[in-house]
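#structure-requests
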Amino acid sequence: MKRLVVLGGGESGVGTALLGKAKGYDVFVSDKGTIKENYKQVLIHNEIEWEDENHTISRILNTDVVMKSPGIPDKVALVKQIREQGITVVSEIEFASHFTDATIIGITGSNGKTTTATLTHHLLNTELNVGLAGNIGDSFAKQILEHDYENYVLEISSFQLDDIKDFKPKVAVITNITPDHLDRYNYEFENYINSKFRIAMNQTADDYLIYDADDTVIVNHLKTNPVQSTLLPFSLVTPVENGAYFDDNKIIITINNNKIIMPISNMTLEGKHNVKNAMAASTVAHLLKIRKQTIRESLENFQGVEHRLEHVLKINKVQYINDSKATNVNATYYALESMDAPTVWIVGGVDKGNNYEELFSFVNEKVKAIICLGVDNEKLMSTFGNMVDVIVETQFMSEAVKIAYKLAESGDNVLLSPACASFDLFENYEDRGRQFKNAVRNL
């Protein structure tokens, strides 16, 4: 009997354990932290052996394959030890993909991947049998076990791509590549770029790579590292022969001489970056033969993603906006770019080696006050101190929102767009976003 060790008892870990057991593996789950109660109950109910707050090395090294949670870095001693023993280490998407014949649409990128994946699923869902998984919702492994959809849209992080071997999406999408998570890639941007491009590494000419042709990082990488896939670029600025481009408030998509034109004046999502997300998602839909009418209607009724430029409430003519999902500078760039009123900006958290320079022009033009919300705000205070009249710091969301309420005047925006990870003060970006929304509702 083959043995599977799962490192990390979260959503992807427990999903993998369930699928592994169903496929005849002897499964053991080990988590150095505490496994959440709901996941413990699932493991107990399914008679899967587990341990938490500890790794029993002898039980881990005695295995055929290890599925490691994307949150565990390669530099951890245990992971090095596993690799030195010649044991195969895979990510959940790699393990799960061996048990399905579904058409896979894999979506990665530094920003926009959640919105693009959710929107792509929304466009396909009316006409196809399709699941949404990966970095989002129920794990890919669990869905294969419970639903076995004919198609999957997967939101995939670079950490998940680092441990793929044979994983091959029929359609791969790279939304953009900007410096992020450099702490996991020895502060080498090149390592991170290579990691993102692993999404296409097993693709052949029968598969497709959809990417942002306006992103110089992607374009330059493709010049020196060509892929086998059929390329379908999308652009806001240049007409594209095969792929998608934007002209006169319309998206024009051409695949194999089959052209469709989508007016987007009634699209619910705002901002240039969302036009790009819509181009990527619509290109997938056109490729999978979704009717033009369906694509257009779906673009017009899509509600967006929680914690991503989410309009919470208007109080005294001040709009409160939750963009907690902006965990890097580039995401915050898009948020500030789309602000059309003087803005009180709540920023901060765990800095991943951020360079804030690209935000300077927007801060000078649009931001009237800055509230730093983190354990260590020194870098933010010194970077932005001279650019705005008011800059304050706090370690409590409720206080940040109260200060914003005092500073904002009729017609202003209050924007939570942290540009940083959330782990210093919050459980994750969702927790941070919910605390913001609760604080706004309690004003």
